[in-house]
Design goal:
The protein has 4 helices and 5 strands, in the order H-H-E-E-H-E-H-E-E. It is α+β, with helices and mostly antiparallel strands. A 5-stranded antiparallel beta sheet has the order 2-1-3-5-4. Strand 1 and strand 2 form a beta hairpin.
């Protein structure tokens, strides 16, 4: 499948963004950063995840991994897009989360959007082509 055939529509991007912001509210954090993620498969299925922090921080579950795990648990492995949201001045997925994203796609394209002039929210959209 060509990358052009795998691009998501603006409607799908909004659906993913809304879902990521909604699930972010359920994050279980000890620190200040609640994160939400939404992933979409080639058939349009949408899976979400939020970060769940552990008191021993090395056991934290990141939102991206949570969403990808939900996708895999539902029997899907063909990822086409990932949206990650957080209310921070600067934010990007960590290297381990990028490894998980890369595992289900080869090349990653990133788009950042500001959703508020007063508060700086960053949305990371990854369109994945194989």
């Amino acid at each position: 499948m060509q990358l052009e055939e795998r691009l998501i529509t603006p409607t799908q991007l909004k659906e993913m963004s809304d879902a990521a912001w909604e699930v972010r509210r359920h994050a279980y954090v000890y620190g200040p950063t609640q994160v939400g993620a939404a992933v979409m498969t080639t058939d349009g299925s949408l899976f979400v995840g939020c970060n769940a922090e552990h008191r021993f921080r090395s056991h934290d579950i990141h939102a991206e991994v949570n969403a990808i795990g939900s996708m895999v648990a539902a029997g899907h492995t063909d990822l086409i897009a990932v949206v990650v949201v957080a209310e921070r001045e600067r934010f990007t997925p960590c290297g381990a989360c990028m490894d998980w994203i890369y595992q289900f796609g080869v090349s990653v394209y990133q788009l950042r959007l500001n959703t508020s002039a007063r508060l700086k929210f960053h949305i990371h959209l990854f369109l994945i082509g194989k």
